[in-house]
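Example 3.2
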Amino acid sequence: MNTVLHKANTRGHANHGWLDTNHTFSFANYYDPSRMNFGALRVLNDDFVDGGMGFGRHPHDNMEIISIPIEGDLEHKDSMGNVAVIKQNDVQIMSAGTGIYHSEYNKNKDSKVNFLQIWVFPKQRNIQPRYDQRTFNPQDRVNKLQQVVSARQDDEGVWINQDAYFHLGNLKQGFSTEYAIREKGNGVYAFVIKGDVTINNQSLNKRDGFGVWDTDKISIKADSDAELLLMEVPME
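Structure, written as tokens:
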């Protein structure tokens, strides 16, 4: 078994005034050759955007882009004609494929939006761009791992063009469980949204990241009430 630990205070940080962001992996002006990716997981940004502000129209290609709002509402528009508001308990995915343009803005003028921006390298390149968004019942992740992203189109969660599976958990203090790796050769990157957890005897706190690979399963224990995101991705 191999592991990598990224404490919250070691992330790259940038404050652009309207955008306050932390980068778990190298992104924009933050570069660390030891923190380029975790397998197919390329970007994990923790973005806080001021009211009414956001990212203007910009391009992407050949990347799976997942947005998970933690607080607030994110307004999305893209060159495929999609116009949507992404709220807490929603998960959005775009397969950028051959190329798309999109914009993202804080829907509200009077409060910040905090969301996780996640990029995963695709399994197949140059596919037709695609958009999906779903709302998940938060009660279905109380002391459970609720699947929100899946490699299988007939499975729970939004479909991703990669052998990847994401789960959210809202775990009460003292709760313990295990997560079994779905695909051979995959690893799991855990990101603590809130609270304190122990994974495979490693203590983790709010916004810490912990990657585990070359194992069949991981153990999880909530040391306080905690919210947890697990991202299972191919390591090669």
